[in-house]
Every structure is written in structure tokens, then in C-alpha cells.
Amino acid sequence: MSPLRTAAVRDVAVIGAGPVGLFTLFALGQAGLDALVVDALDVPGGQCAALYSEKPIYDIPGRPSVTAGALVADLVGQAAPYDPLYLLGRRAIGLRQEGEQFRIALSDGSEVGARAVVVVAGAGAFGPNRPPIPNLAAFEGTSLFYAVDDPARFRGRMVVIAGGGDSAADWAVILAGIAAQVVLVHRRPVFRAAPATLAAIERLVQEGRIRICAPRTLAGVSGTGARIEAVHLADGAGGQEEVAADALLCFYGLAKDLSALASFGIAAGAAGIPVAPASMQTMRPGVFAVGDVADYPGKLKLILTGFAEAARAAHSTLALLRPAAARHFEHSTSRGDPAARAANV
Amino acid sequence: MTRLIVTARDGSRHHVEAQDGLSVMEVLRPLGIGITGECEGSAACASCHVWVDAAWLARLPEPEDAEADMLDCAFNTRAGSRLSCQLRVGPELDGLELAMPHA
User: Fold this and answer.
1) Residues in B touching A131 (Cβ below 8 Å)
2) For testing the chain A interface, which of B45, B47, B71, B81 should be mutated: the one with the most A CBs within 10 Å?
């Protein structure tokens, strides 16, 4: 949450703040270890926050029905007494060893340190869902965008907006008052947006400020250098048309990407990261993996499985980082209220 | 047994015996033709996107909102685009023809 540029160092770095990552923070706290957590999203919760926060979950032990959003809020609260450091809105992109410490490179150019790492990356870091059009990358950031940072950039421009959800609809309405032309491209003539936004689109179409191309899909982009000159649309029946444009905004939701882990030396592949289930350690000593990303024979990809794996990883991490510590085991009932204990430290 | 016919991206046609009660995604995934079903059938990703043959489209139940909204985020969609995880195998699907989406 803080725009941290200096290198934070904690006992353990947790990669991924989904439900299992959050419970990992709690489990590490119970073990007496302090932790930081890195996540690509701007809020904790992972898929629970980004994909289905309103949906009820029915298979969390002791919670007959809980929405994903409420579960995340409670998990954040459960870990709070241990004061984990949240580094949100940035991805972990590199892992290297420096003496006894792991150094984790983040996508904002900073680096954090920890003596152990728990990878809780789920199905991957969230980022824009980019259309599979080979030459798109050349235009990204110049005339192709997946988010709008500065609407004024589109003043007087011919803008094509692709997508059919809230983002596409909202920006079509906003940019209709700024851009020279707004073309809204969608696979079907139905848009999913607030009633007021849909009414505004209808009015702006009548006023000639927005043109809707639907059903049409994005087929390609042409231009010179980093400048888009035309967007090619397919009609689904073999026909194509070209729309003159100098900016393209794509709103196809989020995609999950595990590719950054390929360089971590933990054999991350299509099935996830292989771990020894007795410790949850990966092939790289000191690096653990839990939750959906951790793979072993018989693995059941459920949130509740991840919770148990998080507790296992916390015990393994403690044994690794404090080898001389007495292997005293305590149930949380004996340990007492984490909030009260934290207040006494 | 219900039989499905699916055309892969390389043009090869696969005749598949499908167990009733499974989703079409669960039947296609083991073929290794690009159906991954990453969200395990909860209509929360588009990794089981298929093109249903035009002749079959009207015979299938309409997509529910969650499926239609997720298809909005898929690429290379057509009129016959469906999430195969939302199609349940049963005798009424016997002979269903599908194709893997491509540009």
C-alpha cells in the first residue's frame, strides 16, 4: 500500500495476496515470523477480489456461506495483528540469492529481501487480457492502451474502444466529450453497464458522438512505427472492415500470468510448482509454494486445501529459519488471542 | 454414450465418446487440443471457448449471464461461441459438432 522504494526486509516474503496468501501471513505470524506480501492487484484477495467478490462460497469449513469479498476481509483482519507489509500493485518478477537472503525483484523496479519465500501465486498474477494479435505490442503505451491514465491524451483523436463491460461503456461516454470520434466495438449488441451509462451511450449514438460496431470483433491493427492508423474488424462471417483510428483501448478484463515464475528456479510449469507435500518446499531450499500453484500427487485445488498447506509451510519455514528453537507446539487456543498478544509486544 | 465431433486448430477431426453428466469441457480437455478449463467449470475464464456448429446452436440452451459476460472477454468469438464447461453432455448432444476457435 505504501509507495515503497527502499528495500524492505522481512523473515518471509509471500508472493500472492489471494485468500491462501493472506492465511499464510496469519500462519507465519502464529509461528513468530514477520512477513511481507507482494501482489499484482491493488487490493488483497486475488481471484476472490478480482473475479467473484460478490459470489458466495459454500465449502469453507465453519462458514456455511460466505461471499468471497467477506472472506478476504476476514482473512486480512485475521492476519492484521501480525502487521504484515503489503506491497500491492506490483508483481514479483525475479528471485536471486545473496548470502542467506533471497532478493525478490518487483515490477516497479524495487527489490525486497527475505530469508524464506512462500509462493502463493494461484493461477498467476493479474494483468490486462491482451488480444492475441501479433503486432499489438509495438503500439502498447503509445496508441494502444489497456487502461486510461490521462483522458486528455485522447483530445481530438479518433478512438476505437473494444469490449462490452463497464470499463468499455464508461470510457466511451467520457471520451465521447473529448475525442474527435469514438467507435465502440463489441462481439454482441448487448453492453453490460450501469443503466445510466447505457442511456448515455444511446443518447451519444443518436448525437453521432459514438458509433457502435456490433457484432464485430477485433481482427488486427495496422499503423506506422508505434502509431496505429487503422483497426480491422471481423464480422464473424468471413468479412472484414477497416476503421480509421489513432488510438485503441482494449477492455477484455483480466488475464492471469504465471510466466514470471519460470525464472525462479523452482520448476514452475503448466501444472504449477512441484512441492514435497510433507514440507511444501519446492526444489529450491528456502522457497515454498502453497495454494493452487503448488502441485503434488492427489492435489485438490480448493481454498481449504491451501489453508492447510499454509499452516504446513509456516511450520517448515520456522524450522528452517530458527533451527535452534525448541520445537514447541501450541494450539491457537493455548497461544491465545493474536490481537492481545500483538498489543503486548 | 454420446458422441461429439471436434475440429482442432490444425484441422484434424476428433470423434469423442462422451460420458453423460460430464461437461463438454471435461470431455475435450484430455484430448490436448487446447482446452484447459482453468477455472474448473465456473464460467470464470474463457479457456474452454469453442465454436459450436451453426446447425446446432439453436438446439442448445441459451448462455446464462455469467457465460455471456465471460465470452465478452474472449477473443476470436463468433455467433456460435460458447464456453464448453457450461454444456452438459446428454443424449440430446449426440453428434454435436464443435471447433476450436482461431483467428
Assistant:
1) 75
2) B45
Pairing between strand A294-295 and A273-274? parallel
Residues of chain A with CATH 3.50.50.60: 9-127+255-344, 130-252
CA distances in angstroms from B101 to A261, A307, B7, B13, B51, listed in the order given = 28, 37, 9, 14, 6
CB A273, CB A123: distance < 8 Å: no
Are B38 and A132 an interchain contact pair (Cβ–Cβ within 8 Å)? Answer: no
A100-149 pLDDT, tens per residue? Answer: 999 999 999 999 999 999 999 999 999 999 999 999 999 999 999 999 98
Can you tell me the ipTM of this complex?
0.89
Sheet strands (E) in A208-315: 210-213, 217-224, 227-234, 240-244, 247-250, 254-257, 273-274, 287-289, 294-295
Q: What architecture does CATH give domain A9-127+255-344? A: 3-Layer(bba) Sandwich (3.50)
Which residue in chain A is spatially nearest to B103 when comparing CA positions? A219
* Nearest chain B Cα distance for residue A44, angstroms: 19
Decide if A190 touches B, using CB distance below 8 A.
yes
Mutate to test the interface with A, among B36, B42, B72 (most CBs of A within 10 A): B72
Cβ separation B44–A132 shorter than 8 A? no
Is B76's CB within 8 Å of A217's CB?
yes
Angle at B87 between CA A55 and CA A68, to 5 degrees: 10
CB contact under 8 A, B72 and A186: yes
Domain B2-99, CATH: 3.10.20.30
| Chain A closest-CA separation from residue B20 CA (Å) | 23
CATH fold for the domain made of A130-252: FAD/NAD(P)-binding domain (3.50.50)
Domain spans in chain B, listed from the N-terminal domain onward? 2-99
Sequence-distant (6+) residues with CB within 8 A of A17 are A37, A38, A39, A41, A44, A45, A46, A86, A88, A120
**Hey, is the C-beta of A128 within 8 angstroms of any chain B C-beta?**
no
Q: Which residue has the cell 535452534?
A: A324
Cis peptide before A215 (omega within 30 of 0): yes
Contact A129/B81, CB-based, under 8 Å? Answer: no
Nearest 5°: the CA angle A30, A273, A34 is 20
Q: Which of B40, B44, B71 lies nearest to residue A187, judging by beta carbons? A: B71
What are A235-288's pLDDT values in tens digits? 988 899 999 999 999 999 999 889 999 999 999 988 899 999 999 999 999 999
